[in-house]
Amino acid sequence: MRAKCSKMILENDQYTFTGGVSPLDLVEQYGCPLYVYDSAIIERQYKRLTSAFDVPDLKLNYACKALSNVNILRLFKRWGAGLDTVSVQEVALGLQAGFDPQDIIYTPNCVSLDEIELAVQHGVKINIDNISILEQFGQAFPDVPVCIRINPHIMAGGNVKTSVGHIDSKFGISIHQMPLVHRVVEATGLKVEGVHMHTGSDILDPEVFLSGAEILLNVAREFPDLGYIDFGSGFKVPYKLGDVETDIEELGRSISARFREFCREYGRELTLMFEPGKFLVSEAGYFLAQVNVIKQTTSTVFAGVDSGLNHFIRPMFYNAYHKITNVSRTKGRKRFYTVVGYICETDTFGVNRQMTELQEGDIICMHNAGAYCFSMASNYNSRYRPAEVLVHEGQAYLIRERETLEDLMRSQVEAPIFQPSAVGQ
Ligand SMILES: *Cc1c(COP(=O)(O)O)cnc(C)c1O
């Protein structure tokens, strides 16, 4: 499906978020750079996904590594979602947000048994993705039910950093190792309550996804005590005009029909689970930055902004395209810019981007900044991480303060060699 990409509302030459909140007012009030999340868009995406599936028992576990602010987690809890977590710290955040432990699934990769034990103590669902840990887990906690993460060996999308189901991937237990899984399960007496796969970031073709689903269903058939089958994520959203978007309605129809049929064969209703991150929050996020410098060189016109790869690394890390608009100026002639950051390293947000002619001091907006943007931010160059604002029902709420020097110093400890009494020793 070809799609439009998300955009703010443009009315009377002014951009606004849902409910009429102005990005320029937010920058005025909370400073710059600034992350803004529009809850109406998150809710729209959540409802789109839930209504795409027609099964007796559906559970969407929000993959909170995409955007882990506790207010966002609370919104999902309010709407009835569960949580997908990849670290015991995310588990702790989920519990802080008020999730029932059994509504949290913990899907770590290459963590120690010690960390998994902490998750067991929290009472969350445990998803295991390698045989060594499965064997150790089965001996340590034979009474704790587990989910098993399968690697179906299908290639989803084309990006090796985000595609995690292919043959060389470090994720999941190969379907070719199922005989060994069964041996471990039998020897330890483990109860397998779920099977899981997460193939990667981009479902471009529902047919390819369905063939992966078929592999997981074949595995599911081998376990008689299942409560749920988790098909992971990979729902793609458009980042620019004409991008291919996962046809969620078509995918929902075909998966639901296949799942209902499977449950009839299996003899019992099971929960159909997914764990979307990007699909739910990407389009709801906007990153606002100020143009510090317009710099004409022999080859391009740079627009240098008060941010960089420290705040927003997807363009540099994944070569991701994020649409950029000038929110300060909506009328007038358009020009092409290379938008760059202030980090002492090449940090290009976009090349040859057409925008209403920029002036120093203008505010630009990077779109699709909800998923893997703030959550991947760092303090590189000793810069503060930005503030976050939630726009909800016509109101703006500060949900994270901009950092200060104290935040940079908080965990640093001065060695005694620098105390005055030690000088000269
Ligand atoms: C990251 C992750 C997700 C979410 O992926 P999206 O592409 O953001 O939807 C789901 N499941 C697992 C196990 C993950 O690691």
> Overall 3D geometry?
globular
CATH topology of the largest domain: TIM Barrel
Distance between the termini: 71 Å
Q: Can you tell me the number of structural domains? A: 2
Q: Helical percent range?
A: 25-40%
Unreliable parts: none
- Specify the biggest β-sheet: 9 strands, mixed
CATH superfamily of the largest domain: Alanine racemase
Instruction: Round the mean pLDDT to the nearest integer and report it.
Output: 93
- What molecules are bound to this protein? pyridoxal-5'-phosphate
How many helical elements? Answer: 12
What do these coordinates show?
By secondary structure, the protein is an alpha/beta fold. It folds into 2 domains: 9-37 and 282-409, Lyase, Ornithine Decarboxylase, Chain A, domain 1, CATH 2.40.37.10; 39-279, Alanine racemase (TIM Barrel), CATH 3.20.20.10. It has helices at residues 23-30, 39-52, 70-79, 88-96, 113-122, 131-140, 178-188, 206-220, 248-266, 278-281, 314-317, 405-409; strands at residues 9-11, 14-16, 34-38, 58-63, 82-85, 104-106, 125-128, 146-151, 173-174, 192-196, 228-230, 271-274, 285-296, 301-305, 324-326, 334-340, 348-356, 363-366, 387-392, 395-400. Strands 3, 13, 14, 15, 16, 17, 18, 19 and 20 form a 9-stranded mixed sheet that branches. It has an 8-stranded parallel β-barrel with strand order 4-5-6-7-8-10-11-12, surrounded by 5 helices. A hairpin with a 7-residue loop joins strand 16 (334-340) and strand 17. The longest helix is centred in the middle third of the chain and has 19 residues, at 248-266. The chain is globular and about 65 Å long. The N and C termini lie far apart (71 Å). Pyridoxal-5'-phosphate (PLP) binds next to helix 10.
